[in-house]
UniProtKB/TrEMBL annotation, chain A:
This is ABC transporter permease. Its main location: membrane. Belongs to the binding-protein-dependent transport system permease family. InterPro entries: MetI-like, MetI-like_sf. PROSITE patterns: ABC_TM1. It comes from Aquibacillus rhizosphaerae. Residues 114-295 form the ABC transmembrane type-1 domain. CDD domains: TM_PBP2 (cd06261). Coiled coil: none annotated. It is a multi-pass membrane protein. Keywords: Cell membrane, Membrane, Transmembrane, Transmembrane helix, Transport. It is found in: Cell membrane.
UniProtKB/TrEMBL annotation, chain B:
Residues 4-237 form the ABC transporter domain. Its main location: membrane. Keywords: ATP-binding, Cell membrane, Membrane, Nucleotide-binding, Transport. The keyword DNA repair does not apply. This is ABC transporter ATP-binding protein. It is found in: Cell membrane. The keyword Cytoplasm does not apply. It is a peripheral membrane protein. InterPro entries: AAA+_ATPase, ABC_transporter-like_ATP-bd, ABC_transporter-like_CS, ABC_transporter_ATP-bind, P-loop_NTPase. Pfam families: ABC_tran.
Amino acid sequence: MKSLRHLILPTILTGFAILLTILLPSVEDGVENGSIIGLFVSIYVLFIFISFIFYKHPIYKQVTSDIISIIFVLLILWELSTNRFEILTSFIYPTPGEVMQQFKKDAPDLVLHLLASIRLLASGFLLAVCLAIPLGIISAWFGRLDRIMRPIASVLAPIPPIVLIPYAIAILPSFRASSIFVIFIGAFWPIFVAALNGVAGIDRRYIDSARTLGLNNWTLFRKIIFPAALPSIFTGLTIGMILSFILLTAAEMIGANAGIGYYVKLATDFGNYTRVVAGILFIGLIVTIVMTILTQLERYLLRWRK
Amino acid sequence: MSTIVYENVGVTYESNGHQAIKNLNLTINSGEIISFIGPSGCGKSTALNVAAGLIEPSLGAFKVDDEIITKPGTDRGVVFQNYSLFPWMSNLENVRFALAQKADLPKKALIERAKELLDKVGIKGKSQHVYPSKVSGGMQQRVAIARMFALDSPIFLMDEPFAAVDEITRKHLQQLLLDLWEKEKSRKTIVLVTHNIEEAIYLSDRVIVLHEGEAILAKEITFKRPRNRQSLEADTEYLTIRNQLLEAIEGKV
């Protein structure tokens, strides 16, 4: 029974939420209680599923339970303040049920927008990864280059790449090229600096040890320098990825005709706030998924750490 | 043949101007085991790093078989004080990687050979396949020794190789080193850095006491090999040598 204790609070909250939905009269006529109950139930099922993954780690189980409970409390407050008591104006504050319905209706569209966004994001981000890691490692390896690149990086890196977007759109032939360029710039510097620091910070012992094994330069780079710098490189990748998302959506809101940022912008222009909220939540979900994949990749590749 | 010569070697660290070694003159014959001994900061690790080719002497020259050495090479296998295994490779992979640098063998044969070497130092079964961070410091040091054996260099350079391991393991590893050394027809030249007097006497043909970067005493150890720990410790000559070294280390010469 002790192993099921973490289920108690979320279960009570789910039951409470469903009960409220059924018992309290709703303000909006158009929205069925079914979709909001469906939302509660699917979050609850998701929670059971996640806590099953963490069945061996009592702390993670507890954390998931706590977070899910907070989500439920927020959802209940949201539902009560909009759909049940109308404390918040229905025009700019959509109800959870409306947002859910909008999601369902727009799902095929959202997938298309997502694909357009991912293409831009992947192109810009991967280009940055492919250039920043080797350049960072090479710069760190040659003392002279290191001393040149550090001041250059410290001047250029802090320029918020968002200010480049309008100009990039003006000078580059297509929106696609300009947004890839801006994402590339945004992701490049954190990854470059991380690779530079990663190599500069390699424990002298590993280099000495490698030198006594008589490695050639290529093996030294591939088997020693790169893996030794990888923990630092991953912190750069994480920052680069977050910046890429910010720049992607910003660029899409300024000049795109597709993409998740464009979806939110268009809905805002038309005053469709249900769609705006659905879009924001959708972007949040996508960012979470992408960052989780990155973290899992990091955990796998750096499994040798203590 | 691997005769090592320190010829008026002096090392001054550029960063702080500290003179780690002053005018070291020493010839180590091929097949000889010598120990550098002394308190911390006496320059014994620096002397070994010069031999490894990791530090270039600021004065004089370091030679192996009349050739001046300024770079590391696979003719000298090194065990560092702090193991220095590559943490992103499993224990087995660390040894296999070293083997692969020296021997042009198919991967399977390399793995077999690496396993044998690890078995020899007492790293068996599952511990071969885990990452160094998952085993104790003593076990990591054994893997580092197996890695040095893998290079099969004519010269072994060992910086406090047994300092981090427990008494029983230390004796086992010392024996393993001596067995390997005694069995080979072309004996390896071994340079050892230690702060353990008993270890130095038991293993070495000569013990060099360093004090503030200078060799203040070079003591021949002439006990017959194979040596026996118990009878050695009961020997009056052993006690005389031990006290002499101890006095030298404490600077009473």
